[in-house]
Write a structure and sequence with these properties.
extended, single chain, 86% helix, mainly alpha, 92 residues, 2 domains
């Protein structure tokens, strides 16, 4: 892969993107810590989710759909704002 392809894949210089991800991870970690969330809580929550799905069978599909919809309430608007901001930047 050429340097231009790598830069295009990452959306910028790989070093710059790595630094941005580390900084963003640090600040998100601060926020999650302030909210009392730990990485173990997330891992245990996912493990419990899969265990419930296995134990409950198809009854857990409703729970999974609720989780998806709950996440989509945040993910879709953020994605839409990012897409609109990028489109505005390209046309401007």
């Amino acid at each position: 892969m050429s340097n231009d392809t790598v830069t295009r894949f990452f959306g910028g210089s790989p070093v710059r993107i790595a630094i941005q991800l580390v900084v963003l991870s640090f600040f998100l970690g601060l926020v999650l810590n302030a909210l009392g969330v730990s990485p173990y809580d997330i891992v245990n929550g996912l493990r419990d989710l899969f265990r419930r799905i296995y134990d409950m069978g198809f009854g857990a599909i409703e729970t999974v759909v609720r989780y998806i919809l709950l996440g989509a309430v945040i993910v879709i608007p953020v994605w839409l704002v990012i897409r609109v901001a990028r489109a505005g930047r390209r046309s401007g």
